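#lab-general

N.A. 3:47 PM
ok so I finally got the sequence cleaned up, no stray characters, all 284 residues accounted for. can someone with queue access submit it? mine expired

B.Y. 3:52 PM
send it over

N.A. 3:53 PM
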Amino acid sequence: MKVIVADGCGFCPGVRNAIKIASETLAKKKNVYSLGEIIHNKDVVKQLADSGLKISENIKKIPSGTVIIRSHGAGEQQLKQIRKQGLKIVDATCILVKRVQKIAKMLHKQGYKVVIIGDNGHPEVQAVLGSAPDIDVIGNDKDIANLPRNKKLGIICQTTQSPEHFATMLEKIAKTPFSELKVINTLCKEAIKRQTCAVELCQKVDVMFILGGLHSANTKKLAELCKKYNKKTFHLQNFKELDTSTLLGNSTAGVTAGASTPQWVIDEFVENLARFDTGKKRNS
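B.Y. 4:20 PM
back already:
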């Protein structure tokens, strides 16, 4: 089978840095925790766990040691609680996520009602919510209906959202009553590039595969965008999850991966896929 890999897939600089920091910390210290999964990829999380990294969602349950702040960041109250308990902090927050947090604080100080376009349950958004008081999260049309009227609105966006979604939400917000609207583009350029390359590739192939964690926001966004242009788009974590019946009758496959997907997962998938004979069915 012919396999084409999209440009720029796999680890982004922020994820690569977080894993590097975690590995270096584990090599130097004992009793190391991360506040939630350091990135959204089960293979990488398992590798780090095998090296001694413990995961905790509850700071109060961390008795002692070092806490790594994951790539998605943490809120001010969480950081205060960690310091209060006498725990050491190692910060692996993506610099672009830190930028969103700083902008949220700035807009609040300037008197704007801060609004972030994104997924309320995502850890990046939750960390931003801890950066300034009373931030509204816009995930859908219903959320827009609840925005305060006749206020100064300062709009930012979760870094991994698509430009199309950002623009759609902005258009709808602009139709609500407000006294002033200030918009700051906080989208990740790396994520946008990957989305563009993935969409272009999916329209040239018979079947498209998106590799990465099922809970990874940027990976899910890649799958969502590709499905608009190629119905034969599949989001898988690795080659073990491939149902080879999806390959039958197709001669060309496209592959891309989320920002938290390790290169060895991509390589293994591509190598196995390239060896597949689409003329007959076999076990994966």
